Amino acid sequence: MRIFRNALIAAIVAVGIAGAATAAPLVNVKMLGSTNQAGPFSDTVTASAGQTVFYEMVVQLAQTGTTNGTKTINTRTAHPTATTAGYDGINSLSFSLLDDAANSVKVSFNADAALSTVTDAWNGAPGFSAGTRTSVGAGTNNRLTDVRPILAAGLYAGANADAIMLTGSFVVNAGSTGSSPIVGSFGSVNGGFSFNSDTSTGSNTLANKPTITVAGEPNYVSFAPLTVAVPEPGMIGLAAAAVVGLSFRRGRAEPSRR
C-alpha cells in the first residue's frame, strides 16, 4: 500500500512539473533603465536620490521551442519593413508599472511617458495610451497604469529582437537607499501576438495568433523588473575618498623624471 501511495505521489509531482514546464511565457516584456537618456540601458540602474532615471519598455517573442499549453513557437520571422503586414511578433499589449510604496527605493514617474514611433508606431490604432500616473499607498506618482501600446491592424514587431514600446523617466525620491524593483503586470485590455507564420509570405493562421486575455491565462506574458539601486550617501563619500587617496599615493610614488 505504501509503495502504491509513494508511486501515486511521484506521478502527481511529475505531472505537475511537466505542466509547469509547458506553461512558459511566449511573450517577454522587460523594463530597462539608464541615468543617461541616450543609454546604454540595462535591467539594473544605480542612481542617487533626486536623480532622474530614463526607462524603456521592450518586448520580444520567446525563443523558438518555447511551449505554453498547445502553443509552441517553432519559427519567428520578422516583417521586412515596419509597414509590412503579417509575419511574427507582438501587435498589442496592456500593462501597468508599479514601484511598491513599501520599497526602500521610492520613485515618482514623470509625465513624459510616450509610446515609441522610432521603428514601429505603437500608437497605430484606436485605444492606444501611454498610461496614467497614479499614487498608490504612501507613494507619489509611483504607478503608471493602463499603458496600451498597439500597432496598426495586421502589423507585428519584436519577433527576433527587442522592440521598444514605451519610453519615459522617473525621479528617485529623497531618502531612498538600498535596491528595489519596479514591476510590471498585465493591464485591463486584451493583447495579441503572432508566431509560426509562413516565412516567405508572412501569412498565418488564427491558431498561431493567440489573444492575450485580461485574466492573463494561460500566462502568455512575463514581465522582467527594473532594479533601482541607491548607494548609502556615506558609501559614496568613502568611495570618492578612496579614489582621491589612491591617486595621491600614486603621485607620491612616481619617481622624479629629470
Question: What would you say this structure looks like, in words?
Answer:
The chain is elongated and about 60 Å long. The C terminus is likely disordered. With 258 residues, it is α+β, with helices and mostly antiparallel strands. Helices cover 16% and strands 33% of the residues. It has one domain: Immunoglobulin-like (Sandwich), CATH 2.60.40.680. The strands form 4 sheets. Strands 1, 3, 8, 9, 12 and 16 form a 6-stranded mixed β-sheet that branches. A 6-stranded mixed β-sheet has the order 2-17-13-7-11-10, with no helix packed on it. Strands 6-14-15 form a 3-stranded antiparallel β-sheet, with no helix packed on it.
Summed up, what is this model?
The protein is an alpha+beta fold and 258 residues long.
Based on the model shown, name its key terms.
258 residues; alpha+beta; Immunoglobulin-like; six-stranded mixed β-sheet; 2 helices; 33% strand; disordered C terminus
Q: Biggest β-sheet: count, sense, barrel?
A: 6 strands, mixed
CATH class: Mainly Beta
The number of domains = 1
CATH topology term = Immunoglobulin-like
Individual helix count: 2
Order of helices and strands: HEEEEEEEEEEEEEEEEEH
Poorly predicted runs are 4-21, 236-250, 252-258
Cα radius of gyration in angstroms: 23 Å
Strand content is 25-35%
The average pLDDT score comes to 85
User: What's the β-strand tally?
Assistant: 17
| Straight-line N-to-C gap | 93 Å
